[in-house]
C-alpha cells in the first residue's frame, strides 16, 4: 500500500497556486489539512483542522476569511485509500489531540467531532498514529499520544465526540433554550427554566457542560454567511436566526470543587471564545454585579446549604449574598437559591449519590429538582459509561456493595459479579497494592493511591510528618489541592475525595480506612466516627437545627468510597483496614495474587 503523503506550503495565494497543479487529488479527493501559524509567531500558536473533497477550493475560502489571515502554513494529508468517513475521523482525531496537547489554541468549532464506525476503521487508526508522528516531527505536537490522553487538557476539552445520550441532551437543551429566548424576544413572556442533567460517575456530565459552553459561544460568533462545508447534527443552530438570539447572552459555569474548577479554567484559557473568568464559584456568581442569562452548574449536588463554611470570611459572604439577593438573611436559602436568583435559565448537572458532606444540598432538594425537571420535560439522563471500562454495571455493583444504612441489612449483589477486561482486585497488603499502583503507573500512567478521610492531616502543619501509617507503610496526604493528580509528587502521596472527585485515573488504589466497618451480626455497614477526620464532613448544623447521627454520616462516607471506587478507567485496587469489612468485601471483589 502506498503510504499517506504530507505536504506543506505557505498559506498564501501564491503557495496555493503552486501546490494545486501538482496532483489531480489536490482538487478532487478527500483530504485532511492543518492550518497553523507556528512559523511566524510561536507565541500565538493558533491551529485549524479541516477536511474537504476539494482542498484547493476549501483552502482558498480560508484565505478569504479574515479570522484565518494570521495563519502561515498549510499541511495537507493525502492517502489513496482515504474516503470521506476516514477523513472525518482523522480530522476529529487531530482536533482532539491538538486541544489536549495544549501547544496551540484550536480555532475549530466543536460540533464536528465524530467517532463513527466504518469499514476497516481499526486499520486506519494505525495510519492516524503515523500521521500524528509526522506532525510531531514537524513541531505541530509537543507530547506523545499517551501523554496527551492522560492530561486534563484532553479529558476536559470541549472537543469531544458525544455519545448518543449526550447528543440527545445537548440537542434538547439547545432547543429548549432557544424556544425560551424566542418567547422572550417576541414579547409573549419572560420564560425562565431549570434543566437537569443526571448521571452516575463516568457518564460525562462535565463533558456535556464544557461542550455546551463552547457550542454556545461558537453559535454567538457564527458569521452571517456560514462558510463551513459540513452537515453536522447541530448545524441548524449556527444559522436561521439562532446566533442573533444569543447576541449579548451572559453565560457562566459554576464549579463548586476547587481542584476541578482550576483545571477547567486552564482549559478555557486555551480555548478560543472561552475565558477562565467564565468558570466561577457559587460565591462569585452570587456576588456578581451582573445578572446571567444562563448559568450551568457542574456537580450541583456539591452546592451548599447554610452551614459553617471553611472560613469566617465565607460565613460572612454567605450572609451578605443572601441579604443582597433576598432583602434579609434567610437561613433557609441555599447556594442553589443564589443561582436561581442570579440567572434566568439554569442547567444543573447532578448525581445525588455523590454528595459527600452535610453542607451539600439535602437529598430532598435534589429529588425535587429532578422531579420538577421531569414534569417540564427538562430532565436528561446520561447512562453511557465513558470512564470505567467495566461498563455501567460496575458503578451499580459498587454502590450496591456500600449502599445501605445502618437501619437495614445490606443487599449485596447476588451472585457476585466479575468484569472481563477490568482489573478489580482486593489486597490484603497495602505494601503490595502500592507496588502494583507504581507498576501500573509505569505502564499506563495516571495511577494513584486515594483514600477516605480516616487519618488526621498532620502534614498541613508539619511537612516532615506522615499522615497514614499502616503495617510499616508511611504515606502523606496530597500536598496540593490543585491538579494534584498531575503534580510531581502525586505517585508518592494519597489523594483525598476533594482532589479526585470529577477526575479520571487509569488505575485507582483505594484505601478504605477504619472510618468504615462492618457488623457481621446485623449484616450492616457501620461508621467509626472517631476515625473520620473531615471536620466539615461530620459537624452538626445548629444554625438549621440539624444533628447528624451515625446513619447520616454513613451515607456520606459510603458515597465517598463509592466515588473513589469509580475513578479508575482500567482498574481499581482495594485495601480495607477493618477486618470484618475486608471479609465481607472479599466475597464480592476478587483477591489479588
From TrEMBL:
This is AAA family ATPase. Signal peptide: none annotated. InterPro entries: GIY-YIG_endonuc (IPR000305), P-loop_NTPase (IPR027417), SLFN_3-like_DNA/RNA_helicase (IPR018647). Pfam families: SLFN-g3_helicase. Residues 28-109 form the GIY-YIG domain. SUPFAM superfamilies: P-loop containing nucleoside triphosphate hydrolases.
